TrEMBL record:
It comes from the Bacteria. It comes from Catenuloplanes nepalensis. This is Cytochrome P450. Belongs to the cytochrome P450 family. SUPFAM superfamilies: Cytochrome P450.
Length: 264
């Protein structure tokens, strides 16, 4: 099947093309990108769980040019298999175990109510609600001051555009600049928490230990940026997709409303 992953129409609505892929078979060869595509849910699950298809990071070349981008990915758990992944995940999970998710409940509710209260009669669910809410939650988790949070999403958006199949030199330059600025900011935040610890995740990432092991400076920066990028992106998409799906499934919408009523 001829499918152009850079086609704006495909990006806007990929589902018809994905459905056609599934009809053609669970695994397909994509000539343009010289790669195999896993089309069905079952096949994707097999590929993701099979260690023979694992990820081992290789720096982009030339290494000198791509150094800011490579630094963020070389040191994050998502780009590695065990034992490196296991070590990084264990250290980050230990920092999370300090009750951070529970403590965020009131802050999430307050920020959601604030965003809804300031919205007009019509608003963009993703741009005006889901995205700022998700970024604020992860930023609150890490301990990023509210005055600085407006720079996080632009940095994240610029960095992830490096993954696009067809990208311009300008896109790469923006991604590299954002990678460097993002890393510098998180490094400064970590240094601040070493001097003045607080009850936030960055403080505990700085302090976490597993025996004599701890996160190195580059690992700490990469882990914090991964939490922000991956954490808010998934939340935005899940909230947007769920909002679209619920009216199409009235039974599930009724269950959600009933659960919210019981919780209240």
């Amino acid at each position: 099947m001829a499918i152009d992953f850079a086609d704006p129409e495909l990006i806007q609505d990929p589902y018809p093309a994905l459905a056609e892929l599934r009809e053609r078979g669970p695994v397909l060869w994509h000539d343009a990108d010289r790669m195999w595509l896993a089309a069905s849910h079952a096949t994707v699950r097999i590929v993701l769980r099979d260690r023979r298809f694992g990820r081992i990071w290789r720096d982009r070349e030339p290494a000198e040019r791509f150094a800011p981008f490579d630094l963020l990915h070389r040191n994050q758990m998502m780009e590695h298999e065990p034992p490196v992944h296991t070590r990084l995940r264990s250290l980050v999970a230990s920092a999370f175990a300090r009750g951070h998710v529970t403590r965020l409940g009131p802050a999430i509710e307050a920020r959601a109510a604030e965003l809804l209260a300031t919205a007009g009669d019509e608003f963009d669910l993703l741009a005006d609600f889901a995205e700022p809410l998700a970024v604020d939650v992860i930023a609150e988790l890490l301990g990023v001051p509210r005055a600085d949070r407006h720079v996080l999403r632009p940095w994240s958006a610029a960095v992830v555009r490096m993954y696009e199949p067809a990208r311009s030199p300008e896109t790469e330059e923006h991604a590299l600049r954002a990678s460097g600025e993002f890393a510098d900011y998180m490094r400064a935040l970590a240094a601040d928490r070493r001097r003045e610890p607080r009850e936030d995740l960055m403080t505990h990432l700085v302090a976490v230990r597993d025996g004599g092991d701890r996160l190195g400076d580059d690992e700490l920066v990469a882990s914090a940026i991964l939490l922000l990028n991956a954490g808010h992106e998934a939340s935005v998409n899940a909230l947007g997709g769920g909002w679209v799906a619920l009216p199409r499934h009235p039974g599930q919408l009724a269950r959600l409303r009933a659960a919210d009523h019981l919780r209240a």
